[in-house]
Specification:
The chain has helices at residues 111-120, 122-125, 166-169, 187-190, 214-220, 238-245, 374-377, 412-427, and strands at 3-6, 13-20, 31-34, 39-42, 48-52, 61-65, 72-75, 83-89, 102-103, 107-108, 131-143, 146-159, 171-179, 200-201, 247-256, 259-270, 273-282, 288-301, 314-327, 330-345, 352-358, 363-368, 383-387, 390-391, 394-400, 403-408, 436-440, 456-472. The protein is mostly beta strands. The strands form 6 sheets. Strands 11, 12, 13, 14, 15, 16, 17, 18, 19, 20 and 28 form an 11-stranded antiparallel sheet that branches.
Length: 515
């Protein structure tokens, strides 16, 4: 049923990792519920999850479900505490069927008609009554498959129902939050976007500026919940723009738990970008279970030549996933994930450290922070040096590891005077560009870095909310302080912990993940 992999586990938690039984690939965003109490978590990017150890003592059972896989039940008592429990899920074998949903009694619905009906059903199939979800929120970045700048929170979100304006009426209680210092913190990557200086930017940024903090913006990107307002590129208003802006086709059927699902793919190319999405609709009533949407930059090839999940080699600009689960006769959020790329301008890797004079040898010694490429170092055209306004010529250049020795072409007396004047000025801190002007260009170090050249580094940014419990018909309490929507979620927000606060936990990712 499962295998073990030794780890240094966090005390008090049982760690698991979900894998496809056939391919051994991690299963991302699977639902892991503790059966009987309707509390659980969603698996991470590496398929990992954590369950508090205390549930083992209560003889509880994990119920694991994921779209396209058979639901699995595992007694918590059979899981190890000191190891990651590797849990395989079997793919669900689905017979390919044509769409059998009918319009009246005469004809089958086309794919576009199915999508139109599914969108029209949202006000009926999603709760119009107030309710709340309690869940684990996090935002983080990933660099070279490692988590950095991980921030985490437990939130209770009071939604006034599908007919209410989400941004205006939804209230959020903050149970707990922390900036996780167990993972690397990158100060530059944490900074706000700065398009003026170029220090931190998003290429082809065309997401609307809605206002509000990180969590508010994440919720607005749930195009299902906010089907009648503008959300993101080309989807815009789901109820009026999705069908107009995309082409549609039916894909192989799938399932989620006991629900059989139609898979509807849609796509559009516009300007320099391409968009691909998938809707998963219930075979019973065309209720929307999940929506995925990815926008690509057609001009930007993946640096490693990697083929993306839609078969191309271009890079994604952003990706949104939102999934819903049925509770009774209504649909409630299971998770929402938003991912985008940004670039930060790194400091130059190859730099000049200082210039000294060697009087006995009558040369200028240029010191660098790394070994200099030999061919570049010996080119006289790469050095523009002037003494008291007169450009110097060099009779010889010597490259020794991270030093370049420049031997000016001067007479003996002229050279003695110049070097002594430079040395004296240096001791008095009066050496300036009028006396010695020095410009270097086109030099590279042995790693290929150009002198003073700053390069951009790409980082993936994630914001995610995973529901642990749904509370139908829950009303926002009047006596508590709610999150300030216009203040960053991890800055001076009020904390309101309920009596049963320990029923919920942060599903912190495992420290080391695999690609």
């Amino acid at each position: 049923m499962f295998l073990g992999l030794s780890i240094c586990a966090q005390e008090g938690f049982i760690a698991g990792k979900l894998l496809d039984a056939e391919t051994q690939e991690p299963i991302v965003f699977a639902t892991i519920k503790i059966k009987g109490i309707a509390v659980g978590v969603i698996s991470n990017m590496d398929g990992g999850f954590q369950i508090p150890y205390r549930f083992k003592n209560y003889s509880r059972v994990l119920e694991i479900s994921s779209m396209g896989y058979r639901t699995k039940e595992i007694p918590i008592s059979t899981l190890w505490l000191e190891k990651v429990n590797l849990i395989p899920l079997e793919p669900e074998l689905i017979q390919l069927e044509e769409a059998v949903v009918k319009a009246g009694k005469k004809k089958k619905l086309t794919v576009r008609q199915m999508v139109k009906k599914a969108i029209a059903n949202i006000p009926k199939t999603f709760s119009a009554d107030p309710y709340s979800t309690i869940g684990y929120y996090r935002d983080y970045q990933m660099e070279e498959s490692q988590y950095i700048n991980l921030n985490e929170a437990i939130l209770e979100v009071y939604d006034q129902g599908i007919g209410a304006n989400d941004y205006q009426t939804t209230k959020v209680l903050m149970y707990d939050y922390k900036e996780n210092v167990d993972f690397h913190r990158d100060v530059i990557a944490l900074q706000p976007y700065n398009f003026e200086s170029g220090q931190k930017v998003i290429d082809n940024a065309f997401l609307p500026n809605y206002g509000g903090n990180e969590f508010v913006i994440l919720r607005i990107h749930d195009a299902i919940r906010n089907f009648n307002i503008d959300t993101y590129w080309l989807v815009h208003r789901l109820d009026t723009d999705l069908l107009v802006n995309h082409r549609f086709a039916k894909a192989p059927d799938t399932s989620f738990g006991e629900d059989g699902l139609y898979s509807i793919e849609f796509w559009r190319k516009k300007g320099g970008n391409s968009a691909f999405g998938t809707l998963y609709l219930s075979k019973n009533d065309l209720t929307i279970h999940r929506m995925d949407y990815t926008v690509y930059d057609n001009s930007k090839k993946h640096p490693k030549g990697t083929v993306n999940k839609h078969g191309g080699k271009i890079q994604a600009v952003f990706e949104v996933k939102s999934e819903y689960q049925r509770l009774g006769d209504k649909m409630y959020l299971n998770y929402i994930s938003f991912k985008n790329k940004f670039k930060i301008l790194e400091p130059a890797k190859f730099l000049l450290e200082n210039i000294t004079v060697n009087i006995p040898k009558k040369c200028l010694v240029v010191n660098f922070n790394n070994m200099v490429n030999e061919a570049d170092a010996l080119k006289t055209s790469n050095y523009n040096v002037a003494y008291k306004g007169k450009k110097l010529k060099f009779e010889k250049i010597v490259n020794i590891e991270n030093q370049v020795l420049l031997f000016p072409k001067l007479g003996p007396e002229e050279g003695d005077i110049m070097f002594r004047e430079i040395e004296m000025a240096g001791r008095k801190n009066s050496l300036d560009a009028k006396m010695l002007y020095f410009e270097i260009k086109n030099l590279r170090d042995i790693d290929g870095n150009r002198i003073y050249e700053r390069a951009y580094k790409e980082i993936d940014q994630f914001r995610e909310y995973f529901v642990q419990q749904v509370k139908p018909k829950a009303i926002a309490p009047k006596e508590l302080l709610f999150m300030n929507k216009n203040r960053p979620i991890f800055k001076d927000q009020p904390i309101s912990r309920p009596v049963n606060f320990n029923d919920y936990w942060m599903n912190t990712p495992l420290q080391n993940i695999e690609e």
